[in-house]
Amino acid sequence: MKRILLFVLTNIAVMVVVGIVTSLFGVGRYTGTNTGQLMIFSLIVGFSGSIISLLLSKTMAKMSMGVHIIDQPRNADEAWIVDIVRKFADKAGIGMPDVGIYEGEPNAFATGAFKNSALVAVSTGLLRGMTREEVEAVIGHEVAHVANGDMVTMALIQGVMNTFVVFASRVIGSLVDGFLRRGSDSSGPGIGYYVTTIVLDILFGFLAGIVVAWFSRQREFRADRGAAQFMGQPRSMINALARLGGLHADGADMPKNLAAMGIAGSIGKLFATHPPMEERIAALKAYQG
Questions:
Q1: Predicted local confidence at residue 5, as pLDDT
Q2: Catalytic amino acids?
């Protein structure tokens, strides 16, 4: 809750500064818009989707991934997974997450709006393709995501980016529309506003995606270090990453909103939610030294 409040207050403070600057330069006069109202509208639109997605993340994960929640372990493997999650949750000082298994390629993810009621799930492919020590390290990585509050952080960063996309595209759209219709007596936004806003929503949305992906990659490095701390050494996590790289687990079977919290992500560059395996292994080796 503190993290949410901090990010919201930070975003509001930044938007207030933007409002002061736009007022000083008379942007509202040139655009014919009320920048104060536009800022409030941008905040609501920017954050509503991210917050709703975060609050529904556990439910959507269970439905979209077909996650079987382990209420009562059916076998020794399930009992072991629950014990590992409990051990790491105790070390991290967080509430016991729900623990689940789903059918899929080698991967795992954590999700949930709150640290003390999160979900940690591993795939059957991960359990079949790794040693127990490597699986343990992967679980440590996901519990570290929960302990670090990464799901909330990423949702709020997305909200901040959405807010600026909405605000900037509409301000610029109003400026373009005013320029195209200079001397005209017609009121209300024209075609220039709508076309410019749509184009800039798409363009700025791509740029915002690059920023969000960069933050996601930094959270992965931190979660890798968290796994190494839980294990007492980085070797197990290094081995797990090396094996995942060999298994070509790229998160392609996971929904976009869950891929950022998975152990293996996309192989793209600017839009990749995860760093390359080689960089993550190198960072852990440097951490080891």
A1: 62
A2: 142
